[in-house]
Amino acid sequence: MRAVLWVVIVCGLLVGCAAAPAATQTPPPITLPLAYTSVNGALTLNYPNGWVVTESGALIGIASDDAAMRAVSNGRPLSSGQAGAIISPFSAATVSAMAEGSGLDNPVLSTFFGLITQNLPPETSDISEIVVAGRNMAYVTLLLADGDSIGIMVDDSDGDYILLQGATAVGELTQYQEVFLEIAATLRFSPSAAPLAPETTPESGG
Q1: Distance from CA of residue 72 to its chain's centroid?
Q2: Average pLDDT along the chain
């Protein structure tokens, strides 16, 4: 399964007369009513109505529809209106081993995510750190000719991390970025709940 690892571009346009600024419209809140728990009970998440979920070993895929899931799972570009992501957990033991192997003394969120994303293309954005629903995260985006993508690393406390690698069609990441961030905020990983298959370190990809 090819990794789809890749901040936010906000453009405010005010149209109206000088005396009276134009009214702004607040987008509706993102709702994630559906819940999923991995087969072994170690990983949980919430996701939008209409989306689908698959699981393969330590990896969980979520997508806006079955066609998007097939595209994301096989590393193919997505069509307009499609979105999908691959979720992979990193236990504290795995984080520590990877950090030690790379000479990292203190694998905090930003440094560990930097290790994961260091081989991505030069078009990758700088790492941004944010807090969503009380969860500490770091993310990067990558906009290429064949599609947009985002990589989000969630600090799940106790040294565990969870990576969400999201993808959309060209020019459509802005439509789904908040959805990906909200999904990431719901991720919970409990490696002690059940043994996981060996975690897979994502490969860089475009």
Answers
A1: 13
A2: 84
